[in-house]
Amino acid sequence: MKTYLLFAAVFLLIVITGFIQSWNSALFILNMGLISAVMSLGVNLQWGIAGLLNVSIMGFVGLG
After folding, report:
1. pLDDT tens digit sequence for 4-34
2. Of 17, 33, 44, 51, whose Cβ has the fewest other Cβ atoms within 10 Å?
3. CA torsion sign, 38 to 43 to 48 to 51?
4. Which backbone phi and psi does 54 adopt, to 5 degrees?
């Protein structure tokens, strides 16, 4: 139940940001959050499950 409330709060904050500032800012924040989520899932898959230490992911983030 706490997870649903947390996602609802984040969604509400993004919508409020869209109305108060601009929708471009809200979509930028959402996009950066989704990119970070995909990146953290990749790190968890490589390091946590496979046991491989791969530091190139942060290098690609630094380049991008």
Report:
1. 999 999 999 999 999 999 999 999 999 999 9
2. 51
3. positive
4. -120, 110
Distance (Å, whole) CA 7 – CA 29: 14
Q: Is the pTM of this model over 0.85?
A: no
Rounded to the nearest 5 degrees, what angle is found at the Cα of 44, between the Cα atoms of 39 and 46?
Answer: 95
Letter string b/e over residues 11-46, b meaning 16 or more CB atoms within 10 A of that residue's CB: eeebeebbeeeeeeebeebeeeeeeeeeeeeeeeee
- In terms of Cβ atoms closer than 10 Å to its own Cβ (0-12, 13-18, 19+), residue 57 is middle
Q: In this structure, how many other beta carbons lie within 10 angstroms of the beta carbon of residue 10?
A: 13
